[in-house]
Structures are given as structure tokens and as C-alpha cells.
């Protein structure tokens, strides 16, 4: 399937956030964690996304130790600032060898991290600013309060959160309106449906869903013998041994459904996330133009009630084998508590 040039209805990030194109671009893989990337192709992909109408671009100050922000600065240089919205995560602490060594959500870290992000990105404000994880040593009220000061000062437009649970959402929203929660959500990662998503909806908080293809696992392009240096997926439970065999079998079941719809597996999986509610914005981590084009094709996939039932039968909730992160990372996720 191919995309068309017709206007796309925008989606609003919660009750208070910006209106954005119905698909966001996640830039992490352009600099980190998925193995080597082609910088020129990554920049070309950002340009292609803007040309297609994409407005929300998501990054983190710790992606590639700041390299991702510098890459985006190069890609966006000369582009009218009104054409795009920047969503930035902060707080992850890293050592010179790249290891993750903790998280800092303190008010001082909020302001210092923001200052560096603004400089690296070459902009005077961020559209959404969010802690990447909950700092267990700092009350969420203090973190959100510090960002709220930056909203008042004009450096930030909206406050977001990432990977937090329902209780934390409530506490944060009591301090300042929260535009959206960034959290993993896909056909094979549906934990938010129990308590987090209902709470977000009650509070008027949107969801920006990352991992909609489960890091490529349900893209329809993953193969058992695939591996790469610097690719953290080699250590992910879902990509290992019998778990991988099981999960790829699910993909083949899904492929049959996709073919009947005239879509690719990736397009069907993205369209399923988008169909779960207009308050949900899928983020796609395309780092090549061909993958971006495929993802944009999901906007042409209309899923009926019968289609959704067929997809649910092919990949029911809880069908995946293995956790989405390793045990150490899972233990630090407030959203999993």
C-alpha cells in the first residue's frame, strides 16, 4: 500500500497538548541501541518525514550521549520551527563507556538537562519535556514542579511523562496538566490496558505509544539469524531462543491477516495501535526512508470491527513469550509495579 497526499486528521496529545500528525517519528535508532546507523540516511529520513507531514519528533538527551539531538539539529536546520514539535526525554545517567548508571529527576537536573538540550537542538523551546523514567529518590511532584517552572519561563510548552504507573500519573497531574504519557504499547505489549490507560483517559492525558512494532520483532522483517554489534535487542528476552521462535510464529499468523487486508505486517500492527483510540499516537522508529514510507502506509489501513476481532484472535493479549525488557530494567519501571 502507498500513502496518498490527502490531508490527515491530526491527533491532540491529551486535553492540553499540541495537535500533531497522526504518526510520530522516534529518532532513537538513528544514534543508539539498534547498532550502527547511517547518519546521512537518518537525516534524509527526517526530511522525508517532514515532507510527508509528520510533525512530532521524539528524542532523548541520552540517545547516543547527546548525538541524537545534534543529528536532529542538523536535520532540522533551516526548517520553520512551526513545522515540527520536539518531544524530549531526560534524566538517564550514563558513564563514559556508555553504561546506564541511574536516573536523576531532581529539579536541578531538570533545568541543567533542559539547558543542554536547547543548546544541542538549536531551539529556544521544547514542545514536550518529560523524565524518561521515575526517579525513586525524588517525588514526582518535585520533578514536575521544576518542569512547570520552565513552562512559566517559556522554555517548555507541555509536560509529559514516560513509563509511569497510574498512581504516579495522578500525583503528577495534581501539580500541573500532563499532555501525554509515553509508554510501550503494541499488539504484544498490552499491560497499559489494565489500569494505566483508563487512568490516563480519566485525567485527559494522551498516550504516545512507542515500541508499536516491539522493536522490529513484529515488523514482518525480523529473521532468527539477525544480530548486530551494539544492538541491545540481542539481550532482550523476546528476541532469545525459544521465545523468539514463538514470537515469530505469531508474526506469521499476523501476516496472513495483513495479506488479506492488502497491507504489510508492520502497517497492520501500527494501524491496530492507532485504532485503539484517537487519544493514542503511534511513534515509529524508522531510520531509513523505505521503513518510514512503509509506516506511513499504515494511515491508509482502515480496520473494521471484524478486522480487529481477527487480529485479536491471531495475536491475543498475553500471547508473546518473554518480557519486553530484561529483569533488571523491568524492576526499575514504575509502570510495571
UniProtKB/TrEMBL annotation:
Keyword entries, A-Z: Oxidoreductase
Record-linked InterPro entries: Aldo-Keto_reductase, NAD(P)_OxRdtase_dom_sf, NADP_OxRdtase_dom
Pfam families: Aldo_ket_red
Name recorded for this polypeptide: Aldo/keto reductase
Highest classification ranks of the organism: Bacteria, Bacillati, Actinomycetota, Actinomycetes, Catenulisporales
Keyword Oxidoreductase applies: yes
Domain of life: Bacteria
Keyword Oxidoreductase set for record: yes
Residue ranges of domain NADP-dependent oxidoreductase in the record: 22-314
